Structure formats: C-alpha cells, structure tokens
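Hey, resending since the last one bounced:
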Amino acid sequence: MISTGARGTRSFLFERDTFAFAHELVWQYRFDAATGEMTTARADPPPTYYHRCFVMVRSARQFFYHARFEPSLPALEAESCRRLIRSIVSRNPRRASAEPDRVAVPGYEGLRSFSEAWEPLLKAECGAAWESYFLRSHWRMVFPVWRGHQEQTARRLERSIQEDGTAVVHLFRFPHVTINHGIMLFTVNETDGEIRFQAYDPNIPAHHVELIYRQAERTFHFPPNHYWAGSKLEVVQIYRNLFY
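The structure tokens again:
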C-alpha cells in the first residue's frame, strides 16, 4: 500500500486529517436487494448542512496542504479560530505550502479533533453550497469519457498520491445523474487486476471507503453504501491544474 506525504511531508491519516462531522443528504435512498431499484424520500428531519461535498473535500485538502497543528499549545478563542480557518481555506487547493509557511493551529492534533471542537464555525467558513456547483472542472462531466481516459486517470491518481499525499476526484454518471459527488483518495494498493484506492467520503465520516479500478474493464467501481447502490461510474481528477 502506497501512502506518502505531500511533497515529502507527513502522510495523510484518516483518523487525523478528515472532518468529524458529516455532509448531510437531502434525500434518503432505499435499494431493492433483488432488483437494485432505487427509491427516494425527503430526509426527515431536513438537513442543515448539504450540497457541500466538494467544499468539504477541498477544505480537507487545504487543511492538509496549508495547516500545521500544534497540540502542545493552548487553543485559541472563537474569533482567532475564525481567522485561522479563513486563512487556510483561502489558499490554493492544488499546491501544498512549504512547512515554514503553513498556518499554525494550536491546541489540536489535526482536522478531526479541530472539527469536533469547532463544527459550527467550520461549517460557516469553509464555503457555501453554490461552490459545489460552480467548479471549473464540471465542464468535463458533459463530454464522453472513454475507457482510455479512465485508464490514464487511474495511473495519474496513483502518481498524485505518491507525490502529493492525496488526490481529489469527481464521481459521476451522465446524462442520467445517479451520482454527482466528490471524495478524496489517500492510499492506493494494486493487486492482480485491480487498483484499490482508500478514500475520505464526506458523506461517511466514521470510516474510509474504497474506489476500485478494474483493469480488464478499464472502469471504476464504487461499492454500495447508504446513498449508492454500487456500480461502475466515471471518475475525473479535480483540483489538479488550471482547468480542473
């Protein structure tokens, strides 16, 4: 299993470097085990923090790239934390800061403990719902995705994890949009016929998930969970260059 740090710094750890709170869903999904048919119903109670999956993976990437946690130092009060958050999430999600240039966050081991303490503040400051819709990379979704493109994507994702510690991806089906979601990959393991990526899914904060690339099919598969029946889908790497 490959897991290296961003440009030679620390490795990404799920238990330390992810948000403790969940991205909430507008719909509840039910899947018929026999037919695979999906039905939906409005979530009850209605969600209060939703349509921000891309905001959350981008922000987790920004904390990984630009924050330096200092657990031995005293924690700050709310207004100082607000300024720290704004400073971190205003930085480039495509390139990591050098260690001396990172924003010091005193009093916490990492993003998970920080987000347990300051959940409302992070929700307010990391980004609005519209930012998940107006991404520069969403143009790629409407064009055909060939098998060769997915093969190139799988290899690029491997390299990104080796060199940068993480890779952020857009999962989708189009034109029948049964999934339109962002997750962040942080380890990769290649076995006979498959490349298996461990990932942070903001919909599932309790544990990591997997994204699987099947080499014979040149196709990505995302296993079933509480909002997805499990199937093949298309994958595009985002937050990687000027156009994505």
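The two ends are 27 Å apart (CA to CA).

Sorry for the duplicate.
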